[in-house]
Write a structure and sequence with these properties.
This protein is an alpha+beta fold. It has helices spanning 15-29, 36-43, 47-59, 75-82, 93-103, 127-134, 145-152, 156-165, 171-187, 222-227, 229-243, and strands at 2-4, 10-12, 63-66, 69-72, 106-113, 116-123, 138-140, 189-191, 200-208, 211-220. The strands form 3 sheets. The protein has a 6-stranded antiparallel beta sheet with strand order 7-6-5-10-9-8, sandwiched between helices. The chain has a two-stranded antiparallel sheet with strand order 1-2. Strands 3-4 form a two-stranded antiparallel sheet. The protein is globular and about 60 Å long.
């Protein structure tokens, strides 16, 4: 089968691209996620072939995997943001402005795409944070409190594979992640982990139907965050309950 291009010429279809598009469409329409077997049936392909496509889509952030179930990942959302097409989210720019006004700290909204965190919205007068957010600069998950929160929502076996791939110089950050993981899993909060190369932050998980889909952080200098850590934690936990859907 082929479709007409804008110039009127027939544009040939590509079976692998068709299968990937069908997988993404099915994942986007599912509210609870789809298993590998279900995806294989949808694209009428062997499970082994489907596994290869799904692995690639998970690795690049187009799908998320949780408990052997697949849902749409953050990459399509990020691409739309880069293109200037913004979607309504429970965490609005106004909410970040309010957090900044209340605390005097930089407020950020981060999502995971593959093994990187991207700040997709922010409220700050700090030009460095503005640059990171407005240019969608990737940061490895292990180097920020938001990244640690996002990691906690991922499949354990994938997280361990990622951690094993990191250089020896990151060993102390890996150890810090495991120290903080119980509180992240229990309360959804990562408080002043001391792992960022340029300050510190407190971040909280943003959940949709129980799944971590983003993280809101409040960051500043090490001294600022340490002085007000307890108040920041309580503020972000309260806000996260309001944002949960």
């Amino acid at each position: 089968m082929s479709v007409a291009s804008p110039q009127g010429r027939n544009r040939p279809r590509h079976r692998m691209i068709d299968r990937m598009a069908t997988i993404l469409d099915a994942a986007a329409r599912s509210r609870t996620g789809l298993t590998l077997s279900e995806l294989a049936r949808i694209i009428d392909a062997p499970v082994s072939s489907t596994q290869g496509l799904v692995n690639g889509l998970v690795a690049t952030g187009f799908l998320d995997e949780h408990d052997r179930s697949y849902t749409l990942g953050g990459a399509p959302y990020l691409l739309n943001l880069i293109a200037g097409r913004r979607f309504v989210s429970q965490v609005t720019s106004e909410a970040l402005d309010e957090l900044r006004a209340t605390t005097g700290l930089t407020a950020t909204l981060a999502i995971a795409v593959g093994w990187n965190a991207f700040y997709v919205d922010h409220s700050s007068s700090n030009q460095r944070w503005a640059y990171l957010a407005e240019n969608y600069v990737r940061r490895t998950l292990i180097q920020s409190s938001s990244g640690l929160v996002l990691m906690a929502g991922m499949e354990k076996r994938d997280v361990w594979t990622y951690l094993r791939s990191l250089p020896e110089s990151e060993a102390w950050r890996i150890e810090r992640y495991f120290q903080l993981l119980p509180e992240i899993e229990e309360r959804g909060i990562c408080a002043a982990p001391g792992i960022a190369p340029d300050g510190d932050a407190v971040s909280v998980a943003i959940r949709e139907r129980g799944r971590i889909v983003g993280a809101v952080g409040l960051g500043g200098s090490v001294e600022e965050v340490a002085e007000h850590k307890d108040e920041i934690v309580e503020l972000l936990i309260a806000r996260a309950k309001e944002w949960e859907v």
